[in-house]
Write a structure and sequence with these properties.
It is a single chain. By secondary structure, this protein is α+β, with helices and mostly antiparallel strands. 65% of the residues lie in helices and 9% in strands. It contains twelve helices and five strands. A five-stranded mixed beta sheet has the order 1-2-3-5-4. Strand 4 and strand 5 form a beta hairpin. The chain starts with a helix and ends in a 7-residue tail after the last strand.
Length: 374
């Protein structure tokens, strides 16, 4: 059960902004102390005492309002309040000294930064001088100094804490938005890599079924069964992607690449060094093989494709090259763009080029973080 005590000024409650001018107006009640002296005939002349009390009250309210609404106007108002309060306390003495504490509250609300303690100490010195001149006892003097300093310090601390809390809340919301955006981008990349490759293979096999349907029914049925198997596998991969799946690994992707290239009529040559990269690097190289082979099947019109993975002095270099016809340079699609971002985020580099002899070359270079225990 939520109680009022548990929700009042709760920094995590929706819409809670913390202290404001309305919450600080109540300290104008301190002017009741000089009014008490005026009412009991201890402040003369009355024609000056009443305007002084009213001016102190009005300037405090104005300073507090501007401190939260327009700080450029708050500082001049604070200066006028200080002049009225100190002059009145020195001239009328008695309970007028309490106005210095009200001045300190206004100072704590208005003044920001490292200058605040200096201003409060100056007001404490003024309170000391006025109290001593009024003949206050040592206890009264010390109480006046302590009360002045804490009256200014406490509201200042409260306001600064709420400002920090609001900044932290804004930062938390921004981080949450960034996390959502990053997760959407990750999911988009995963779906592109998973479905782009799988659908390309299914299209190739469907073309094979169409060609074989009239000449070799058994072979056509086998290709159709492969389409069914690949479709089921795609469903599994999509479900895995939804739960944060990042890749099947290099070995599995190489096996899939051989099958996809063979179905597309592309001769595959795979040469892989005996390396055991860390799981993250292994998965990323698998994604690179998937994306590179998908592009070969879709766009290259190649007859042969070479996939090479070698250890090059502390780096793993993966190259996928086809012998398709030369083409004009073209921009990277979503797949290569997403792969580049992943590789660079892992400290690697991705290059794409059209070699002089024709075809297309995809090269991925990754730091060789070996698997534990190697």
């Amino acid at each position: 059960m939520t109680t009022e005590r548990g929700t009042w000024l709760d920094p995590l409650r929706e819409g809670e902004r913390g202290p404001d001018a309305k919450g600080m107006y109540m300290w104008v009640a301190v002017t009741a102390a000089p009014v008490w002296d005026i009412a009991h005939g201890r402040s003369h002349p009355l024609w000056l005492a009443w305007p002084a009390a009213l001016a102190a009250a009005g300037l405090y309210v104005a300073t507090t309002h501007f401190a939260f609404a327009d700080r450029r106007r708050a500082l001049p108002a604070l200066g006028l309040l200080a002049a009225v309060v100190l002059a009145s306390a020195a001239g009328f003495e008695g309970n007028w000294l309490y106005l210095i504490m009200m001045l300190a509250v206004a100072t704590g609300i208005t003044v920001r930064g490292k200058i605040l303690p200096v201003v409060l100490l100056a007001e404490c010195a003024a309170a000391l001088a006025v109290a001593v001149a009024a003949g206050a006892s040592l206890t009264g003097v010390l109480s006046m100094i302590w009360g002045t300093f804490t009256a200014g310090l406490i509201p200042a601390i409260i306001i600064r804490l709420w400002e920090a809390i609001n900044e932290l809340k804004a930062t938390r919301e921004e981080l949450a938005r960034a996390a959502v955006s990053e997760e959407r981008l990750r999911f988009s990349r995963d779906l592109h890599d998973l479905l782009g490759h799988t659908l390309s293979v299914m299209v190739v096999k469907a073309e094979a079924v169409r060609r074989l349907a009239r000449v070799d029914a058994d072979e056509a049925a086998g290709q159709a069964a492969d389409i069914e198997r690949i479709g089921r596998q795609a469903l599994t991969e999509v479900r895995a992607a939804v739960t944060g799946y990042r890749g099947r690994g290099l070995t599995a992707e190489l096996d899939s690449a051989r099958a996809a290239l063979a179905d597309a009529g592309v001769e595959a040559a795979v040469r892989v060094s005996s390396v055991r990269p860390a799981p993250e690097t292994d998965a990323l190289l698998g994604w690179a093989v998937r994306e590179g082979v998908t592009n070969v099947v879709r766009h290259s019109r190649a007859a042969a494709c070479a996939i090479v993975l070698r250890d090059d002095g502390g780096h793993l270099v993966l190259e996928i090259r086809d012998d398709g016809p030369s083409a004009k340079p073209y921009g990277e699609g979503n797949g290569l763009t997403g792969l580049r971002e992943r590789v660079e985020a892992a400290g690697g580099a991705l290059e794409t080029m059209a070699p002089p002899g024709g075809g297309f070359l995809l090269r991925v270079t990754m730091p060789y973080a070996k698997e534990d225990g190697e």
